[in-house]
């Protein structure tokens, strides 16, 4: 069975099950339910060992299809997201495979040697993007991207801070085209988030 992010019935080729974990049901966005990222789903059964979804049989397709990196069989058995403190997802950004680390709470990544260990392995083959879900309503929230060789980019608004081991930090503005695209993207996201919030009322 390859099912959803929602409970003990979920199984994959690795035979892992979500069990009492339902962290993605809090951290991730579900448009079909007008649910914002970083807010618990109204159907979520937190910590229920029998499974985390109160509408398992009629949950949205996006929920049926989602599998975090751990459920897909990567990482160690002990790295279940609710124990790890983050949901890790493989995604594609601008046609580039990317590992997204959704922190359960702000600072979880910096506080977790295991999360840092995982990121240090994956950043050598693809960008690793780290973000908390507490400031999800702020499209300007810092985006932290970990790259090979210890390089790290922090993007806040139009500004990028580039850190490389053994070299001074470099602060610069995004190129004009990137700034324009980013502003358009932020404007779209602000409008979209306002619409999502209005739908929830
Ligand atoms: S975060 Fe992963 S293990 Fe936890 S409920 Fe979602 S899919 Fe299952
Ligand atoms: S509908 Fe169920 S599986 Fe989907 S986010 Fe809500 S609790 Fe999770």
Task: Walk me through the structure.
The protein is α+β, with helices and mostly antiparallel strands. The protein is built from 6 helices and 7 strands; from the N terminus they run H-H-H-E-E-H-H-E-E-E-E-E-H. The chain has helices spanning 24-27, 61-65, 81-84, 108-111, 113-122, 176-200; strands at residues 86-93, 96-103, 128-132, 143-146, 152-156, 159-163, 170-173. The chain has a 7-stranded mixed β-sheet. Strand 6 (159-163) and strand 7 form a beta hairpin. It is globular and about 50 Å long. Bound molecules: iron/sulfur cluster (2 copies).
What is the share of helical residues?
25-40%
Nearest-integer average pLDDT: 86
Structural class: alpha+beta
Measured between the Cα atoms of the first and last residue, the distance is 36 Å
How many strands in all?
A: 7
**What series of H and E elements makes up the topology?**
HHHEEHHEEEEEH
Strand content: 15-25%
Report the bound ligands by name, code or SMILES. Answer: iron/sulfur cluster
Largest sheet, in brief, is:
7 strands, mixed
Shape: globular
Rg over alpha carbons = 18 Å
Helical segment tally?
6
Strand line-up in the sheet with most strands: 1-2-3-4-5-6-7
Pick out the low-confidence regions.
1-13
